[in-house]
TrEMBL record:
Protein's name according to its UniProt entry: Ketol-acid reductoisomerase
Subunit structure: Homodimer.
GO BP, one annotated term: L-valine biosynthetic process
Sequence ranges assigned to domain KARI C-terminal knotted in this UniProt record: 291-439, 450-576
Catalytic activity, EC: 1.1.1.86
Catalytic residues of the enzyme: H210
Catalysis performed (reactions): (2R,3R)-2,3-dihydroxy-3-methylpentanoate + NADP(+) = (S)-2-ethyl-2-hydroxy-3-oxobutanoate + NADPH + H(+); (2R)-2,3-dihydroxy-3-methylbutanoate + NADP(+) = (2S)-2-acetolactate + NADPH + H(+)
Native source species: Clitoria ternatea
Length: 581
């Protein structure tokens, strides 16, 4: 059993421990392995039974230093050091004033093939094309699609065409490209990677916007071919956000979606500058380093947590509770979905989580604390399980198998994902949005705020204990939630996002949202109704957590403009508009 240690030196200095609910059944000491410099030592973990879940209290929590690979060297862009909660990390700031550096970053590249036209494909292809044009580069950005795909029409409408060599067959595009951005769905990557690799030129570069393919290859004992470079640039937001903020950035320099980047293989020394150039061309305000393995673990986990699955689960649970306790349906919707996707997200985005708590009255703070105290460990219970399912490869195999069930197979019928937006709650949401005044961010409802912030903090703690960098933790657990996904959910509803985001995220939300719903209903809300005392250690830890200072630093790097999402914003994935696509 590997010890879970924090990557924050601030936590290490104080040997801060996790606050615990009261012990109800037993207390047992286990021996856990812990890595300290080059030595292996032993530390004691005390596990206590809390209701139906186990909560671990660290006796000591030394910091995990980020791997040396998270530092990087670039000959084109300016690397900058930032300090997050006492830990040094390195980033590259973006901006349209850097576009003139793109030809140097992409040296040796004549064609960039963008494969797929799903969530990320349209945004990344258009941003790259526009940025390279502004840099007066003659690099061709070409879209590669399956023959017969309905997405050809949408790509043509976006300005790509067969006539000018910017639109064509997927395999011809891969064979002719020096940089191949593989932006098809995760399950499609798992089913087609061998053919993709076989069509790539030696010494070309494979670009990914998600580490899923590495996770799949690892799960079957394989790796990438050794004659290509493998990099990743992973925007911390869905494709429509990447494009929308880029377009807004034409008026305000630097508007965009933050990205992480990784260099998994570098066959000729160009990979880092190419990856950074790709990120800058997408409009990323800042780009931070990660590894492909850390990226897929945090990303797949995050989709099932605060980004989509857990949010879906908690608003379903709270809406049901509020209405069962006599609250009007429309008010209950406002106090759940509208509160989370509106004012709570807006406040966290601009001022941080503590500002949500501090904006409440004294009575409101007590409601927040009651909800936070009751929800934190149940949320962590499911998040912990989810992370380990992702890290072990179990969740990746689940996605691959689920993707294959979308089509007829072995004499069994196809089972496409059904819509979730026809239930009572989401019909109420349609009515609420139809009469909502422009700019209305909904009410700051204390109990809902306590549950949501508990979820966010529990996710942060899991990633922190698993050794992720603060840049990755904050972007994956906070910024992507409140600056990218929630504004779209505020415009169109949580159910719309669950029905229309990436295939992997939709699958994950359907699988994990009920788990969050049930555990809150069966444990957290029962604890509140039973008058369980507020865990004051939990509240104290929340108020003093070093992540708040780290978020403040990241907030200084955020775009100077908020994403603009009109109520009629069309961000349906193209393949969902065409059933035969």
């Amino acid at each position: 059993m590997a010890a879970m240690t924090s990557c924050s030196s601030a936590i290490s200095a104080s040997s801060k421990t996790l606050a615990q609910p009261p012990s109800r059944t037993f207390s047992t000491t286990f021996i856990a392995f812990q890595s300290s410099s080059s030595k292996l030592g032993f530390k004691s973990l005390t596990l206590r039974r809390c209701g139906s879940s186990l909560a671990a209290r660290m006796v000591s929590a030394p910091a995990i230093k980020s791997p040396a690979a998270l530092d990087f060297e670039t000959s084109v862009f300016k690397k900058e050091k930032i300090n997050l909660a006492g830990h040094d990390e390195y980033i590259v700031r973006g901006g349209r004033d850097l576009f003139h550096l793109l030809p140097d970053a992409f040296k040796g590249i004549k064609q960039i093939g963008v494969i797929g036209w799903g969530s990320q494909g349209p945004a990344q292809a258009q941003n790259l094309r526009d940025s390279l044009a502004e840099a007066k580069s003659n690099i061709v950005v070409k879209i590669g699609l399956r023959k017969g795909s309905h997405s050809f029409a949408e790509a043509r409408a976006a300005g790509f065409s067969e006539e000018n060599g910017t639109l064509g067959d997927i395999w011809e595009t891969i064979s002719g490209s020096d940089l191949v951005l593989l932006l098809i769905s995760d399950s499609a990557q798992a089913d087609n990677y061998e053919k993709v690799f076989s069509h790539m030129k030696p010494n070309s570069i494979l670009g990914l916007s998600h580490g899923f393919l590495l996770g799949h290859l690892q799960s079957i004992g394989l790796d990438f071919p050794k004659n290509i470079s493998v990099i990743a640039v992973c925007p911390k937001g869905m494709g429509p956000s990447v494009r929308r903020l880029y377009v807004q950035g034409k008026e305000i320099n630097g508007a965009g979606i933050n990205s992480s980047f990784a260099v998994h293989q570098d066959v000729d020394g160009r990979a880092t500058d190419v990856a950074l150039g790709w990120s800058v061309a997408l409009g990323s305000p800042f780009t931070f380093a990660t590894t492909l393995e850390q990226e897929y673990k945090s990303d797949i986990f995050g989709e099932r947590g605060i980004l989509l699955g857990a949010v879906h689960g908690i608003v379903e649970s709270l809406f049901r509770r509020y209405t069962e306790n006599g609250m009007n349906e429309e008010l209950a919707y406002k106090n759940t979905v509208e509160s989370v996707t509106g004012i709570i997200s807006k406040t966290i985005s601009t001022k941080g989580m503590l500002a949500v708590y501090n904006a409440l009255s004294e009575d409101g703070k007590r409601e927040f604390e009651k909800a936070y105290s009751a929800s934190y460990y149940p949320c962590m219970d499911i998040l912990y399980e989810c992370y380990e399912d992702v890290a072990s490869g179990s969740e990746i195999r689940s996605v691959v198998l689920a993707g294959r069930r979308l089509y007829e197979k072995e004499g069994l019928p196809a089972f496409p994902m059904g819509k979730i937006d026809q239930t009572r709650m989401w019909k109420v949401g349609e009515r609420v949005r139809s009469t909502r005044p422009a700019g209305d961010q909904g009410p700051l409802y204390p109990f809902t705020a306590g549950v949501f912030v508990a979820l966010m903090m529990a996710q942060i703690e899991i990633l922190r204990k698993k050794g992720h960098s603060y840049s990755e933790i904050i972007n994956e657990s906070v910024i992507e939630s409140v600056d990218s996904l929630n504004p779209f959910m505020h415009a169109r509803g949580v159910s719309f996002m669950v029905d229309n985001c990436s295939t992997t995220a939709r699958m994950g939300s359907r699988k994990w949202a009920p788990r969050f719903d049930y555990i809150l209903t069966q444990q957290a809300l029962v604890a509140v109704d039973n008058g369980t005392p507020i865990n004051q250690d939990l509240i104290s830890n929340f108020l003093s957590d070093p992540v708040h200072a780290a978020i403040e630093v990241c907030a200084e790097l955020r775009p100077t403009v908020d994403i603009s999402v009109p109520p009629d914003a069309d961000f349906v994935r193209p393949e969902l508009r065409q059933s035969s696509n």
